[in-house]
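To: structure desk
From: M.T.
Subject: fold request, one chain
Message: Could you run this one when you get a chance? Sequence is below, nothing fancy, just the single chain.
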Amino acid sequence: MRDDHRESLVHNPTGCPHDEIAALIETEPREIGGDRSAIMATVKLKCAKCETPFRFLGIDEGHSFRRPMVSQDHTTLFAPLVEGYNGTPAPVQVFEYTPAEAASAAREVEGNAK
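Reply: Done. Structure tokens follow.
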């Protein structure tokens, strides 16, 4: 992961207090082949006043159905989801995907996030 986010923690060129945050959250079920499926949440945050996008820190770049990851510019979070109910999470079922399946899904999500 790049370590070039330090400036964003100490420098605010807009002078905006960023005290109102707007969130765009999209969820989409994905069929990955056969009976395998996943739900992917795509999250973007920006200041509602000045529209400055926020970056997610401490998360690796890429796309995975096994763990949260971010876009190359760190402004989009891709988070795989499983269902839960009544405060009790459903059993987590993790699937292994071939690199081709993962790359195909990543391209599709990136295309839908624009």
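Reply (cont.): The longest strand covers residues 21-33. Let me know if you need anything else for the meeting.
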